[in-house]
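retry 2 of 3: previous attempt timed out while embedding adenosine-5'-diphosphate. Reduced batch size to 1 and resubmitted. Inputs unchanged:
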Amino acid sequence: MIPFRDRVQLLVDRIFYKDRKDYRSILQDFSRALTDILDLPHLLEMLVERVQDVLHAERVVIILLDPHTDFYISHKAGGISEQVTHMVRFSKDDQVVSWLAEKGPLYLHGEEGDSYPVGFSVEEKARLEALGVVLCIPLYTREQLIGWLALGSKWSGDLYSRDDLAFLSTLADQTSLVIQSARFHEEAQQKVRELSLLFRASTAISSSLEIGEVWSNLAKRVGQIVDATSVSVYECNIEEKTSSVLADYAGPRASDRERVSRAGEKFSLQESSITMGALRARWPLSISLNDPTTGEGDRARLLRLGGRTVLIIPLMVRGRVIGFVDLCESRYDRRFTEGEIRLCQTVANQAIIAVENAGLFQEERKRALQLGTVREVSQKIVSILNLDELFAQVVELIQQRFDYYHVQVFLNDPDAQQAVFRAGTGRAGEVMVEEGYQLKIGEEGIIGWVASSGEFLLANDVSKEPRFLPYRVLPDTQAELAIPLSRGGQILGVLDVQSERVNAFEESDLFVLQSLADQVAIAIENASLYTMTDQALARRLEELAIMQEIDRQLNATLDFEKVMDFTLDCAIRMTGADGGLIGMVTQEQDGMQLLAIRGYPWEHGPSVGQLWPIDRGIVGRVVRTGQPALASDVTQDPDCVSDISEICSQLTVPIQREERVMGVISVESPQSAAFDEDDLAFMTRLADHATIAIENARLYSDLKRANEEKSEFVSMVAHDLKTPMTSIKGYTELLFKGTAGEISEMQQKFLGVIGSNVDRMNTLVSDLLDISRIESGRLRLDVQSIPIKTIVDEVVQTLQERIKAKGLTLTIEVSEDLPPVRADEDRLIQVLINLMSNAYRYTLAGGEISLKATVQSNSLPPGEAEPVPPDEQPLQYLCLSVSDTGIGISPKDQTRVFSKFFRGDDPVVRESAGTGLGLSIAKSIVELHNGQMWFQSEPGQGSIFSFTVPLATDS
Ligand code: ADP
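retry 2 succeeded.
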């Protein structure tokens, strides 16, 4: 007796399929259905359904090779729970894989008997049995086994017939390539998505120069990239096991608890062993609430924060962990994929670079303000010879620039042993003058102490400073910094600043005030110039002029070498020396690098760049002790090691910042006793001035290096993307041409989509490469004389179809007889295409675009040119202008149009694909040609972008 259910099934079969063996029409049917499906999940679902319907198998499982893990795993199943199929996976070493790859279908309960072929391990059989499949039909592409179709027994209990097997094999062949290309498509889509997310993230992150903004952007961007419900960025101290939230982000599906910002809150790292683990290992780690390996502490923390899965990504700066990103998923238990983790790490690395840059930027800004004040004060000072007027100005300037609570100057009266108040800011200053305020040197207050010791005193919390003397007109003083005014070992007085904040003073304030104090001390000395002899006066005046010139030069250039050369030349001129050198102690403190050298004609003399020892010799001693050396005959100095017999006198002074010796300036002469105390005093002042410039130049080179690292990173990433993209493109074209076998219409469609996405990625990558070439100065031009018409024709040919298709009118006003330009042809085409395609993209249908070329006598925008002197032959330029009647640019955006990654907010801009790099690249290319680029624009009316290129001179 046939069971009732099977009889019904047979009846249904007869009605719906008429003849079960009419496999040909089923296959045709199936192949037609395939053309309607674009994505893998639907494709697999249909396959499972069809096979179940046609063959009445108890279950059908599709197993596919997972390219990320290299395991064969179930992708779709019918008639069996996904929980079971997800537990089972096959490796490439499994017997079933090699059987299917080499021998074809595997039928486990076929006519030959119900045993497995030899070689199958017990464990492997157990896995197949867990799936409950008896028939495996391989899915091949040309190169490899991409998976198989696994079927359970038929409901009827019948065996699979030869026809069934032939049908399934044909079906498998028909589907394999489609599966493969759907996955290909999916992967390419995924790559494009990743890349554009990454791109958007990097745009946002690298465009901010405020550190807080970088962290908020980081939280938001990684949250969006991996679709986490919330993200927090922490800074941490591993030794102290503390952390605090720098920024957080709650996604659109965050729970109420996650929406409460915790920025600024502090947490002990002891609470969470997963975080501690990730930070110690310096590796991302993830846990889920229901994972049995999750510890109690972490579970409690997850429950409290309302998360189900978290991922911790450490943030590292030069190998040191400074914080971490905590990504939280509150909707379900989730596994973050390798790809997601990799993306988050890339964005985090970018954020760190941005933070470092921002830090440098802020420091640079502060330093610039400080240096500016030093310069301002020194310029004022040299011209004032009346001391009271001088002090009044100095205290005012310092108070205003740095916003201190109170600033004052005291001068020592050595006879009375008193430090006498001379000038102070505000009402307090007036009161103190009226009262004739003074303090006993060496006895009263911080001022008294500094006035006697000649050392500075920094009390960042005056309540902890026993020498602090409260004064009734200054009730709010919390921190005080007093600096001696001294000249040539003599203490002249004290410069004193006060703040209403505890811990108000940093090292850099000390540095600046020290420089100011030096200037004031010089001014005090200058004020007593009247008493000097004429000769000495002349010399002091010359010195002052030189110092001023040095300050000017030092402030004007960030070029280390120029600063050094100039300083050394001054030293030699003013001391009447024959030669000299400047050296800087290396960072490793293992020697001194020689940076400038004059007047050593001898073979065995020193040379620039050489490493000079500091463990011996006179110069070495100056570096080690910080004490200047004045030798009238070097051979008499016990430390002398020089074998240059031409040198007799030598004068060496340290270049110091605070207590640290950074380098030396040394001058020599073949005469004995060539230098005196005056020379020593001059050289000491010179070295003081050079310090600021050196610090400045260092800071600048740091900034430059950080930028170079960023360019290198971009160029590396772009290069890495180029090769896989070329191969995707190549293979797509091969498939398209039918090299790998006939392809259907639907397959052509897929390949078309892949192709155009790869093209987009290509544009992105070549823009990135261009930018990094420009930034690192590696962009080379192949300049030739080119008729402009050729360029215009080429650009028009490329774009006119699209312009017409969009319903735009194109007008070209470029005369045939314009002289040729001097330019790199490909690059000039790139610039023009960029401007024209912007005009095309940002102009609505019905609008107009026009291109004009005219000759002008300079490279500048109209109105900015200076008249050319009559005897000078003006250089001729060609000016090209692209105008459109498009959306225009808002005044706010106009300042940023040429910035890297900038894209406008207008919906028309947002809808068009673009990188925001085009104009920045175009402008740099034009400038490399010695031309200029500018634009005019009116929102809603249109824009005109223009640029100039030089004409070929031989025309
Ligand atoms: P992209 O066009 O890829 O965004 P670009 O650097 O070429 O990058 O342009 C930067 C931005 O300048 C654009 O996003 C757009 O906002 C604005 N822009 C450029 N050209 C025009 C134009 N012709 N009309 C209006 N806006 C423009």
